[in-house]
């Protein structure tokens, strides 16, 4: 079933969608649309307004989101296996309790998004803004993370073991019990981390410029 340019805002669509079809939503207004528990496996959402759209408990396995988006989209307790988000505004989106496996976020605006409490094997993220996001307890172990801003994000309990950071920012990020063992941070802007945050970087690899900046902030000059 295809929806093209339709205003479906504030509607409950779960019972209106045939379960044996792949659904396509193109340039639709889905503001506060109710997809609670809907069967949306393989669905396509192209340049749709998703302001406060409710995908809680929905089956979104294999779905693809491109363009569009909105504030406070709810994905709590949804199934998100092999889902792609490309150039989507996911600001303040909620993923708590969602099954997140092989999900990719590329070019997304994820300011204030919350993935803490999500389940599954994890996700990939690139060229995205996760300022003020909450990733508490998430695993990006072994991932190549490129072009991502984690400024002031809560990364408490995250596992970045053996991850590689390229053109990333970690300025002001909360790093309580965060793991960076064997992580390559040479491509990350660490800002001026305090002693507590420096302890979180134990076992990571940094470059000489980063090391000099850390020491200079403590009044030590390296010749």
Automatic annotation (TrEMBL):
Pfam families linked to this entry: Pentapeptide, Pentapeptide_4
Family annotation (InterPro entries): 5peptide_repeat, Pentapeptide-BTB/POZ_domain
Signal peptide segment: none
Superkingdom of the source species: Bacteria
Protein name per Swiss-Prot or TrEMBL: Pentapeptide repeat-containing protein
């Amino acid at each position: 079933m295809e929806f093209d340019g339709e205003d479906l805002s504030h509607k409950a669509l779960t019972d209106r969608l045939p379960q044996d079809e792949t659904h396509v939503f193109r340039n639709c207004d889905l503001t506060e649309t109710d997809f609670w528990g809907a069967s949306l496996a393989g669905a396509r959402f192209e340049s749709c307004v998703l302001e406060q759209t409710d995908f809680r408990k929905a089956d979104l396995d294999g779905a693809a989101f491109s363009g569009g988006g909105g504030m406070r989209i709810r994905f709590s307790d949804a199934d998100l296996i092999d889902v792609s988000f490309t150039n989507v505004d996911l600001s303040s989106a909620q993923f708590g309790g969602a099954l997140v496996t092989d999900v990719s976020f590329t070019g997304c605006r994820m300011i204030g998004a919350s993935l803490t409490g999500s389940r599954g094997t994890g996700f990939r993220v690139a060229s995205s803004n996760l300022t003020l996001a909450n990733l508490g307890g998430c695993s990006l172990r072994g991932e190549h993370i490129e072009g991502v801003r984690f400024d002031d994000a809560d990364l408490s309990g995250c596992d970045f073991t053996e991850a590689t950071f390229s053109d990333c920012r970690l300025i002001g990020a909360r790093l309580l019990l965060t793991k960076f063992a064997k992580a390559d941070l040479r491509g990350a802007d660490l800002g001026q981390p305090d002693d507590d945050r420096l302890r979180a970087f134990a076992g990571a690899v940094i470059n000489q410029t980063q090391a000099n900046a850390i020491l200079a902030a403590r009044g030590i000059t390296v010749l």
